[in-house]
Amino acid sequence: MAQPESKKRVARTPAQRMRDRRKGLADQNLTQTKITISAPVKQRILDLKANYKMAGMDNVISAMIRNAMATYTVEELPLPPPTPEAIPTSVITVHLSPEHRQFLKDVGRFNRGTTMGIALEAVAMRVHNLRPGARQMPLFDNTMKEGSAVSG
After folding, report:
1. How many percent of the chain have pLDDT more than 70?
2. Rounded distance, CA 149 to CA 141, Å?
C-alpha cells in the first residue's frame, strides 16, 4: 500500500542534517569549543557518561562545570600537576553555554593564562559527582529593613 503524498519520506543529505544541527545549537546559544585534554581525563569523562547514562560528552562536561560553579569559586580550583609527555592528549569538541565557557576562561585567567583544557582538568579533578549538591539557604534575609521583623 502506497503512502499518501504528504507522508512520503524525503531523503536528506548529510550536509542538510549538519546544517540543521548547527542551527539548533546556535538557537540554544551554545558555542563549539575545541579543548585539548589528557587521555585519563577523557576516559574519566567517558566513564561518568556511562555511569550516569548521559547522551554525550557535552552533557557530562556541562554537568561537571555546573557542579563546580555551584560548589567552588575560581580560586578554589587548583591546577592539576603537569601531564607527563608519555601520556597522550586528545582534542575534543564540545558545545558549551556562554556561562560555562566563561567559567573555564576565568579559571584559566586566575591561574595565569592556562588553557581551557587545563581548566577543565582542574574541574574534573575536583568534581566527583554529577548530581547537584544541596545548597545552604541563608539563615537571615539581608534584604529586610530594620524594624520590619515581627518580634515574639
Report:
1. 82
2. 10
The SS3 assignment for 52 reads coil
Residue type, 137: M
For residue 35, give the DSSP letter: E
pTM of this prediction exceeds 0.85: no
Q: How far apart, in whole angstroms, are the C-alpha atoms of residue 28 and residue 18? A: 15
pLDDT (tens digit per residue) in 124-139? 999 988 886 555 566 6
Distance of CA 115 to the CA centre of its chain: 16
Q: Helix (H, G, I), strand (E, B), or coil: what is residue 76?
A: helix
Cα torsion 58, 63, 68, 69: sign: positive
Name the residue type at position 103: F
**Span between the terminal Cα atoms of the chain, in Å:** 80
Alpha helices in the chain (DSSP H): 14-27, 39-51, 57-71, 98-110, 116-126
